[in-house]
Amino acid sequence: MALTLSRSGNPEIYVRDRATGRTEQITQHWSIDTEPVWSPDGKYIYFTSDRGGRPQIYRVSPAGGTPERVTLEGDYNARASVSPDGRRIAVAQGRGNEYRIAVWDIETERFSILTPGTLDESPSFAPNGSMILYATREGTRGVLSAVSADGNVRQRLILSDGDVREPAWSP
């Protein structure tokens, strides 16, 4: 499993081997490294870091090494969700005080903005890659919404009560 620990007061990415119980630190930087997610093939751990001055998505081998910045556009990219085929990353992308759901194509190195909202966060790819769940605000309430991976279909999903935060698809 991948996780964020603050053993020395600074959040870093670690990998814990459940079989052996060993926990290995795989990032070491003065910045904040957080929100780790595995690539579907297990070759990378994607995470959010402000090591470049603002939150961006990076990736690193589970064995460690030098992290590589993945998102190359935008002031703020966080909360990565990797598509099942590993070719796209959904993020909460911020510009000023507006946060929208965007998809970064790893091959073309381009973003597609999928949502028109101003407070959209916590994207989660469906297991088949066709839809992305996300949380957004409607007035003072957090609500659940979904958008197709190409951005053509958007819908609000009705829940009877409560504030929605950080939705995730089941496998």
TrEMBL record:
Gene3D superfamilies in UniProt: TolB, C-terminal domain (2.120.10.30)
Domain of life: Eukaryota
Pfam families (alphabetical): PD40
InterPro entries, per the entry: 6-blade_b-propeller_TolB-like, WD40
Transmembrane segments: none
SUPFAM superfamilies, sorted: Tricorn protease N-terminal domain (SSF69304)
Family the UniProt entry places it in: Belongs to the TolB family.
This protein's name: Uncharacterized protein
